[in-house]
From TrEMBL:
<dbReference type="InterPro" id="IPR039422">
    <property type="entry name" value="MarR/SlyA-like"/>
</dbReference>
<dbReference type="InterPro" id="IPR000835">
    <property type="entry name" value="HTH_MarR-typ"/>
</dbReference>
<dbReference type="InterPro" id="IPR011991">
    <property type="entry name" value="ArsR-like_HTH"/>
</dbReference>
<dbReference type="InterPro" id="IPR036388">
    <property type="entry name" value="WH-like_DNA-bd_sf"/>
</dbReference>
<feature type="domain" description="HTH marR-type">
    <location>
        <begin position="11"/>
        <end position="144"/>
    </location>
</feature>
<protein>
    <submittedName>
        <fullName>MarR family winged helix-turn-helix transcriptional regulator</fullName>
    </submittedName>
</protein>
<dbReference type="Pfam" id="PF12802">
    <property type="entry name" value="MarR_2"/>
</dbReference>
<dbReference type="InterPro" id="IPR036390">
    <property type="entry name" value="WH_DNA-bd_sf"/>
</dbReference>
Length: 214
Protein backbone atom coordinates (compact mmCIF):
# COMPACT_ATOMS: atom_id res chain seq x y z
CA UNK A 1 0.00 0.00 0.00
CA UNK A 2 1.49 3.35 -1.05
CA UNK A 3 2.13 6.19 1.34
CA UNK A 4 0.03 9.30 0.82
CA UNK A 5 0.88 12.96 1.34
CA UNK A 6 -0.37 12.86 4.93
CA UNK A 7 0.95 9.40 5.87
CA UNK A 8 0.05 5.80 5.22
CA UNK A 9 -3.44 4.97 3.99
CA UNK A 10 -6.16 5.02 5.22
CA UNK A 11 -4.99 7.36 7.99
CA UNK A 12 -3.60 9.77 5.43
CA UNK A 13 -6.84 9.90 3.48
CA UNK A 14 -8.89 10.51 6.62
CA UNK A 15 -6.51 13.29 7.64
CA UNK A 16 -6.62 14.84 4.18
CA UNK A 17 -10.43 14.73 4.22
CA UNK A 18 -10.56 16.43 7.60
CA UNK A 19 -8.25 19.14 6.32
CA UNK A 20 -10.60 19.72 3.38
CA UNK A 21 -13.48 20.07 5.84
CA UNK A 22 -11.48 22.57 7.87
CA UNK A 23 -10.83 24.61 4.72
CA UNK A 24 -14.54 24.76 3.97
CA UNK A 25 -15.37 25.71 7.55
CA UNK A 26 -12.74 28.44 7.66
CA UNK A 27 -13.98 29.89 4.37
CA UNK A 28 -17.61 29.84 5.49
CA UNK A 29 -16.73 31.30 8.89
CA UNK A 30 -14.95 34.28 7.34
CA UNK A 31 -17.71 34.80 4.78
CA UNK A 32 -20.33 34.90 7.54
CA UNK A 33 -18.21 37.01 9.88
CA UNK A 34 -17.44 39.66 7.30
CA UNK A 35 -21.13 40.00 6.55
CA UNK A 36 -21.85 40.43 10.28
CA UNK A 37 -19.02 42.91 10.83
CA UNK A 38 -17.15 40.50 13.11
CA UNK A 39 -14.24 38.09 12.97
CA UNK A 40 -14.69 34.33 13.39
CA UNK A 41 -12.97 34.62 16.79
CA UNK A 42 -15.42 37.25 17.96
CA UNK A 43 -18.33 35.14 16.74
CA UNK A 44 -16.96 32.11 18.57
CA UNK A 45 -16.75 34.05 21.83
CA UNK A 46 -20.34 35.27 21.45
CA UNK A 47 -21.60 31.72 20.89
CA UNK A 48 -19.60 30.44 23.87
CA UNK A 49 -21.11 33.07 26.17
CA UNK A 50 -24.58 32.20 24.90
CA UNK A 51 -24.04 28.48 25.46
CA UNK A 52 -22.77 29.01 28.99
CA UNK A 53 -25.79 31.17 29.82
CA UNK A 54 -23.86 33.34 32.24
CA UNK A 55 -20.78 35.53 32.74
CA UNK A 56 -17.33 34.12 32.08
CA UNK A 57 -13.94 35.42 33.08
CA UNK A 58 -11.37 36.25 30.42
CA UNK A 59 -9.22 33.31 31.49
CA UNK A 60 -12.15 30.91 31.10
CA UNK A 61 -12.91 32.24 27.63
CA UNK A 62 -9.26 31.91 26.60
CA UNK A 63 -9.10 28.34 27.90
CA UNK A 64 -12.35 27.25 26.23
CA UNK A 65 -11.47 28.76 22.86
CA UNK A 66 -7.76 27.82 22.97
CA UNK A 67 -6.81 31.47 22.41
CA UNK A 68 -3.99 33.41 24.01
CA UNK A 69 -4.84 35.82 26.80
CA UNK A 70 -3.87 38.77 24.60
CA UNK A 71 -6.05 37.65 21.67
CA UNK A 72 -8.99 37.02 23.98
CA UNK A 73 -8.61 40.41 25.65
CA UNK A 74 -8.45 42.20 22.28
CA UNK A 75 -11.49 40.34 20.92
CA UNK A 76 -13.56 40.99 24.04
CA UNK A 77 -12.58 44.67 24.05
CA UNK A 78 -13.74 44.98 20.42
CA UNK A 79 -17.01 43.25 21.25
CA UNK A 80 -17.46 45.60 24.20
CA UNK A 81 -16.89 48.62 21.96
CA UNK A 82 -19.55 47.23 19.60
CA UNK A 83 -21.97 46.99 22.51
CA UNK A 84 -22.24 43.19 22.26
CA UNK A 85 -20.70 42.30 25.62
CA UNK A 86 -20.13 44.06 28.91
CA UNK A 87 -17.66 43.56 31.72
CA UNK A 88 -18.76 43.44 35.33
CA UNK A 89 -17.17 42.43 38.59
CA UNK A 90 -17.42 38.69 39.13
CA UNK A 91 -19.98 37.78 41.78
CA UNK A 92 -17.60 35.38 43.52
CA UNK A 93 -14.59 37.69 43.40
CA UNK A 94 -14.91 41.45 43.30
CA UNK A 95 -11.33 41.78 42.10
CA UNK A 96 -12.00 39.83 38.90
CA UNK A 97 -13.92 40.88 35.80
CA UNK A 98 -16.54 38.69 34.12
CA UNK A 99 -17.88 39.09 30.58
CA UNK A 100 -21.51 38.68 29.67
CA UNK A 101 -23.67 39.27 26.63
CA UNK A 102 -25.79 42.37 26.20
CA UNK A 103 -29.22 42.17 24.60
CA UNK A 104 -27.66 43.04 21.25
CA UNK A 105 -24.95 40.48 21.94
CA UNK A 106 -27.48 37.70 22.45
CA UNK A 107 -29.07 38.52 19.10
CA UNK A 108 -25.65 38.49 17.41
CA UNK A 109 -24.73 35.23 19.14
CA UNK A 110 -27.87 33.52 17.82
CA UNK A 111 -26.94 34.61 14.31
CA UNK A 112 -23.34 33.49 14.83
CA UNK A 113 -24.49 30.04 15.91
CA UNK A 114 -26.16 29.57 12.52
CA UNK A 115 -23.09 29.91 10.29
CA UNK A 116 -22.28 26.13 10.30
CA UNK A 117 -25.71 25.40 8.79
CA UNK A 118 -24.02 24.58 5.47
CA UNK A 119 -22.28 21.68 7.22
CA UNK A 120 -25.48 20.53 8.93
CA UNK A 121 -27.16 20.32 5.52
CA UNK A 122 -24.38 18.09 4.23
CA UNK A 123 -24.50 15.82 7.28
CA UNK A 124 -28.29 15.57 7.01
CA UNK A 125 -27.88 13.75 3.69
CA UNK A 126 -26.30 10.80 5.55
CA UNK A 127 -28.49 7.91 6.67
CA UNK A 128 -29.38 7.80 10.37
CA UNK A 129 -26.99 4.92 11.04
CA UNK A 130 -24.21 6.78 9.21
CA UNK A 131 -24.80 9.89 11.34
CA UNK A 132 -24.61 7.79 14.52
CA UNK A 133 -21.35 6.17 13.44
CA UNK A 134 -19.96 9.55 12.35
CA UNK A 135 -20.80 11.17 15.68
CA UNK A 136 -19.30 8.28 17.66
CA UNK A 137 -16.13 8.56 15.60
CA UNK A 138 -15.97 12.32 16.17
CA UNK A 139 -16.38 11.86 19.94
CA UNK A 140 -13.50 9.40 20.00
CA UNK A 141 -11.31 11.67 17.89
CA UNK A 142 -12.07 14.73 20.00
CA UNK A 143 -11.29 12.79 23.16
CA UNK A 144 -7.92 11.70 21.79
CA UNK A 145 -7.09 15.31 20.89
CA UNK A 146 -7.95 16.28 24.47
CA UNK A 147 -5.77 13.53 25.92
CA UNK A 148 -2.91 14.67 23.68
CA UNK A 149 -3.48 18.26 24.89
CA UNK A 150 -4.11 19.58 21.38
CA UNK A 151 -7.52 21.04 22.30
CA UNK A 152 -9.13 22.13 25.60
CA UNK A 153 -11.11 19.53 27.51
CA UNK A 154 -14.85 19.63 26.89
CA UNK A 155 -17.60 19.23 29.45
CA UNK A 156 -18.70 16.08 27.67
CA UNK A 157 -20.98 13.30 28.88
CA UNK A 158 -18.28 10.69 28.35
CA UNK A 159 -16.04 12.15 31.05
CA UNK A 160 -18.85 13.08 33.44
CA UNK A 161 -19.55 11.40 36.78
CA UNK A 162 -23.29 11.58 36.13
CA UNK A 163 -23.22 9.27 33.10
CA UNK A 164 -24.28 5.68 33.56
CA UNK A 165 -22.86 4.20 30.37
CA UNK A 166 -24.66 1.29 28.74
CA UNK A 167 -22.80 -1.61 27.16
CA UNK A 168 -25.63 -1.97 24.63
CA UNK A 169 -27.29 1.43 24.11
CA UNK A 170 -29.43 0.07 21.26
CA UNK A 171 -31.33 -2.04 23.80
CA UNK A 172 -30.68 -0.15 27.05
CA UNK A 173 -29.90 3.58 26.66
CA UNK A 174 -27.24 5.42 28.60
CA UNK A 175 -28.56 7.43 31.55
CA UNK A 176 -27.73 10.83 32.98
CA UNK A 177 -28.17 10.78 36.75
CA UNK A 178 -28.09 14.56 37.08
CA UNK A 179 -30.83 15.32 34.56
CA UNK A 180 -32.67 12.00 34.92
CA UNK A 181 -32.55 11.42 31.16
CA UNK A 182 -32.02 8.35 29.00
CA UNK A 183 -29.55 8.93 26.18
CA UNK A 184 -28.73 7.22 22.91
CA UNK A 185 -25.28 7.83 21.43
CA UNK A 186 -26.33 10.90 19.44
CA UNK A 187 -27.76 12.46 22.65
CA UNK A 188 -24.34 12.45 24.31
CA UNK A 189 -23.26 16.05 24.73
CA UNK A 190 -19.96 17.77 24.11
CA UNK A 191 -20.83 20.61 26.47
CA UNK A 192 -23.30 20.31 29.35
CA UNK A 193 -24.16 22.72 32.14
CA UNK A 194 -24.67 19.84 34.59
CA UNK A 195 -21.17 18.49 33.96
CA UNK A 196 -19.08 17.22 36.84
CA UNK A 197 -15.71 15.74 35.92
CA UNK A 198 -15.45 12.07 36.82
CA UNK A 199 -12.36 10.69 38.51
CA UNK A 200 -9.73 9.01 36.35
CA UNK A 201 -10.96 5.50 37.14
CA UNK A 202 -14.55 6.29 36.22
CA UNK A 203 -13.50 7.99 33.00
CA UNK A 204 -11.42 4.97 32.03
CA UNK A 205 -14.39 2.67 32.71
CA UNK A 206 -16.79 4.82 30.66
CA UNK A 207 -14.43 5.03 27.70
CA UNK A 208 -13.76 1.30 27.76
CA UNK A 209 -17.50 0.64 27.53
CA UNK A 210 -17.96 3.25 24.78
CA UNK A 211 -14.99 2.07 22.73
CA UNK A 212 -16.10 -1.57 22.75
CA UNK A 213 -19.50 -0.80 21.26
CA UNK A 214 -20.07 -1.48 17.57
Amino acid sequence: MSEGVYGEQPTGRVTHSLLRLSTAMRSQAWEWAEGAGLTPTQGEILVLLMQRKGPMRLGEIARETALTAATTSDAVSTLENKGLVEKRRALDDGRALAVRLTTRGRTAAKRAAQWPDFLAKAVSTLRDDEQITFYRTLLKTIRQLEVQAHIPAHRMCLTCEHLEASRNPKKTPHRCGALDLTLVDTDLRLDCGAYQEADAGTQKKIWKIFAQQG
